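Extended Data, panel c. Modelled sequence:
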Amino acid sequence: MSALRIFARHGPEYAAAGLPVFPVDTRSKRPAIKGWQRATPRRAQAWAQIEALGNADGLGLLMGAASGLTEIDVDAAGEAWIAASLERFGETPVVIRTASGKAKLWYRHNGEGRRIRPFDGLPIDVLGNGFTVAPPSWREDLGAAYTFRNGGLADLAQLPMIDPNALGAGFTRAAEAVLQGERNASLWRWCMVQARHCDEVDSLIDVAATWAEAFPDPLSSGEIERCARSAWGYESTGRNFLGVRKPQVTRGDVTMDALLDEPEAFTLLQYFKRWHSNRPSFAIAPRAMSEAKSPPWPRRRIENARDVLLQRGFLVEINEPSKGRKLAGRYRLAEKMPETGHNHNTPFPLH
């Protein structure tokens, strides 16, 4: 909330246009009142007169039958994404720039539901239900407002419907169809697919809460957060296989990155993985290995490569070698992954 009084100043303007708006906390993108689902233009006028509600930085606008609007929420910045979305869904006179520099396209509602990331590989939501944050809502944390990039409220009567061919394929299951016994599993799988489009766990929690809003029997905020954090744990450690052909960062990728400056250590590690990956421990005898030409290096090179693997955590020493007793040391493999394996890549627009 701030002294800008966005809702007090602009709520009546939306209400006069026949749109059901309500106050929103723009930072959390959550309604600032209970009963927001029952918003009407008349109630919006009344809420704007209440000081605590009029101080709200954000305007929430009901989507779907209540407003006659469907929004294409383009959750990626850049002109290429706007152009690709307009090409797919059809031209519209109303294009909105969000406070974070992304885009929203408004169309006339034609029965579309609320679908979050329904198209494989595209960071696009179809909002034909629920609510959106409308201009000129203000994000204090970003120091920026939602603005009409093209058009405005005066253009709503000229809005076209979405090209029906644009919604014909690639849809995931709607949240509205998720039953009580399926909520956690469905939300977790959905979070796993969406994790690669998020830069941090808080963003994933936010989009998870948005998708779960449409459940017929809602989950608690704690359950939603647990599902999102669990999925982020797989994403951040390179173990997220859902929705892609391979994990974004594999154990092999991590090993290669860690040993790029020590190619002999990398090669020796591959030897050990080939011959000892299924063993709890194994001996390393550099002289015997050199004489057997496995690998075909001098003893000292094998020792140096072994020491690099120990120093960087790819080998764990169980028993150190004893020169006096002529005993080889015993070791075991120890895989290491970085704290985050998220590559922060956003797919290129299909344009």
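DSSP finds eleven helices and 15 strands in the chain. This feature is highlighted in the accompanying rendering.
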